[in-house]
Amino acid sequence: MSSFWSAWIIVLTLGLLIALIVLLRWNMKNYTDVEEGELMDHEFDGIVEINNPLPKWWTYLFWACFAWGFIYLALYPGLGNFPGLLGWKSSNQDVQSLAESKAAMKKAKEEGLIVQYDREMRAAEAKYGPIFEKYASQSIDELLNNEKALEVGQRLFLQNCSQCHGSNAMGGQGFPNLTDDDWLYGGSYETIKTTLRNGRQGQMPAWGEQFSDQQITALANYVASLSGRERDADLVAQGKKLFTVCAACHGQDGKGNQNIGSANLTDSIWLYGGSISTIKETLKYGRHGVMPAWKDILGEDKIHVVAAYIYSLSHDK
Known about the structure:
Elements: H1 3-27, E1 39-44, E2 47-50, H2 56-75, E3 88-89, H3 98-111, E4 114-115, H4 116-136, H5 140-144, H6 147-160, H7 162-165, H8 189-198, E5 200-201, H9 213-225, H10 233-242, H11 244-250, H12 276-285, E6 290-291, H13 299-314
Parallel strand pairs: 3-4
Antiparallel strand pairs: 1-2, 5-6
Helix pairs in contact: 4-13, 6-13, 8-13, 9-10, 9-12
């Protein structure tokens, strides 16, 4: 925050508190000729106002609030760039990456700063770290038969993965369904762990500059025919000739290659949609889906449990 806006906030905050104190003091004094407890000069609908002072408990409560307000502003950050006498802050809000966050946490600990988020993270690690270490020592078969471990894995999934794959793990357009047995890179437990650990980056190239719109249409019709749909025979024949460039990744039979994450085009499962218009869009502009890497965020022990939960969604115990 710039020094101007910091000063602006300080002036407004302290000015408002002082103005409220002045207002309270003004209302505690009798500025009329009528003695306190006596009737005032004006009335309305037969009701006459009495010149009563402010209740003592009410004024005491206000003074206590003012005192607490000044104490709070002195101890904690809130007045512009003033850090507070305690050196407390909620988190390292100026960090822009995970590496910067870890460096800031280390620096704060070395300097004895009170960062609430850091304290909560350390407390959580001390409490839950041994639990995850215990789960990390178990095999996949043991985890699949450990209801508590799978519940923990589910909670981690909901916290970190559901934003893309949904709370039911059934995905959506552009995000894979994790409950079926269709996998771009493979559905073994170790492969799922590798995906979580290192992430994935889809590289379906765009063919809009290499092929004309008519060729894209023919190729889309041939791709649609691979999953058993009836399409125009002439377009399918033209598209089959063009499919040679696609076979390098998807195979001549269109069944894909899990080693590189190329989709199986012969089933009825489509990541971005299987309509002709959607297939044409995919061919023309390409797709570049990204699955983020979680090794630095969750760590190996948590990935071990999350992978077990995801594996359990499409495999019998």
